[in-house]
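Before the break, one more example. Copy the sequence into your notebook; we will annotate it together after we see the structure.
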Amino acid sequence: MTNRGAGVGQRKTSPRIRARRIRAVQYAVLVVAFIAAALLADWPQIGRTFFDPGLIRDTVAHGLWLALWNTLVYTAGGFVLGLVAGTLLAMMRLSEVGPYRWLATIYIEFFRGLPALVVFMAFSLLPLAFPGLAMPLPPYGTVWAALGIVGSAYMAETIRAGIQAVPKGQIEAARSLGMSAGQAMWKITLPQAFRIMIPPLTNELIMLIKDSSLVFIVGLSAANFDLTKFGRAAANSNVNITPLVVAGLGYLVITLPLSIIVRRMEAAASKGR
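Here is what the structure looks like once it is written out:
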């Protein structure tokens, strides 16, 4: 009886109970942290500095929507250029011609490793290096080119993965029907690959929206301000961070719906499998 009782007393806690206890401790730590932050924070100062009601109204009424529109235009142009260039780069990466593969690999690795800030700085200095050089549709042409170069390096790898995800049997079937390699790529492989790539390409679009905040380097007039440049200028003129916070919320207005769309597409794709 003694040994049996000792065995019952030494019975180990089940993994499920241990996991519940660990979660309870984690929740308790989070609650304590939030309460401590709420008690220690200077809420009146936070309201005056970051959420001034008058400045919120002025920021929304004077220029925010134009800056939001400019951000969308910059991003859309950069995304289209990046998508076209990325598709060509992906096909070069998969080409049987060695120099094409080498050039595409060097381009992709170089611009994926280079900060987007450096690319924008390089484009802003191009007129100094090449006197008389002018990008079309200034400042949109410069911004589109810079964003397109940054985006194409990332999109190329996404597109390459999408192309390789298409079953080879479909390409072989197309070739057996008399299609050339180019026709099979454009009519069979790429349409299916892009259906696979929609969620990751949407993520690339979200990244470009955030990268568009670097256009201040190019030098813009007030009519061409993006959200970040507009928020910084308004914050400096009012000596208050509220306009910059409002501009940041403008990015969320764009990116949150896209993020929800990506999650739903990924969920639908996983169900389809």
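The CA atoms of residues 83 and 158 lie 10 Å apart. The two ends are 57 Å apart (CA to CA). Try to locate both features in your own notes.
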